[in-house]
Amino acid sequence: MAEAAAQLEEYFVTEDCIACDACCNDFPDIFVMNAEHTRAIAKEKSPVGKFNPWDIVTVCPVDAIKLVNLPMPAKPEGEKKVEAAPAETDNSDWERRWAAVRDRLEPQWERMKRYGMASSIDEEKDRYIVRFDMPAKVPNHRLKFKWGLPDDMPEYKAAVEIHGGNVKIRAKLEDEKVKKLCGWVNSFPEGFLRELNFPVPIKSHRLNYDPETRILEVVLEKAQPERQAA
Ligand code: SF4
């Protein structure tokens, strides 16, 4: 008498895959990356009950994983990742707009801005001036277009903390809709922290932001300005 075979879930990765590795890292028994590192492959079926299929399909940032041989179970309460609200304006051509830019490489400088690394420090007699080139563009991603997010990066809120010569400069993205993209796009943290140590104590700071150039200037006044030579 033939034994009833264990029921298996079969997954498929569509051509939308952006080779982010998330499924291969989280579910290595099921997914592997292809040799060209261009698309994940569902190499093995998974016994029913081993994982919740929603955990598997929602690990993918671009909805490229499908359960193909069984119906999906009821959606669990509180999904791991919540999609942003749909765009209020007509966004019906988002796929065309995404297709037009999907192969464009982002300049490294724009990426550095999101980590507070696109910066410079100048010293004057009684102050230091730290300048940050702030992020200008929301990074391209399928969900940016699907969610109807803007191309121009919303402004960051900056704060400075001073302890003697130690200065912490924080900048944080506040726009809730754009912030939702941070969990999906590589190299897109919600903000940055730069910690700087100066040889003299700092007594106060001033923030100047120019929205035209997107330069954030942090002026740090020295507590003991150097004496001019007589
Ligand atoms: S998680 Fe999605 S995009 Fe990332 S490798 Fe797997 S299938 Fe591709």
Explain what this protein looks like in three dimensions.
It is built from 6 helices and 13 strands. The mean pLDDT is 86. By secondary structure, the protein is an alpha+beta fold. The chain has 2 domains: 8-67, Alpha-Beta Plaits; 108-222, Immunoglobulin-like (Sandwich), CATH 2.60.40. Strand 12 and strand 13 (215-222) form a beta hairpin. The chain is elongated. The strands form 5 sheets. It has a 4-stranded antiparallel beta sheet, with no helix packed on it. The structure holds iron/sulfur cluster. Iron/sulfur cluster binds at residues 13, 17-23, 40, 59-62, 64-65.
- The residue ranges in which pLDDT falls below 50 over 5 or more consecutive positions are none
H and E order: EEHEEEHEHHEEHEEHEEE
Tell me, briefly, the overall form. Answer: elongated
The number of domains: 2
Our estimate of the beta-strand percent is 25-35%
What structural category do the secondary elements indicate?
Answer: alpha+beta
Cα Rg: 24 Å
Mean pLDDT: 86
**Which distinct ligands sit in these coordinates?**
iron/sulfur cluster
Q: Which CATH architecture of the largest domain would you pick?
A: Sandwich
Question: Residue share in helices?
Answer: 10-25%
Number of strands: 13
Biggest sheet, spatial arrangement of strands: 7-8-13-12
Termini Cα gap: 105 Å
Largest sheet: 4 strands, antiparallel
Assigned CATH class of the largest domain? Mainly Beta
Named CATH topology of the largest domain: Immunoglobulin-like
Helix tally equals 6
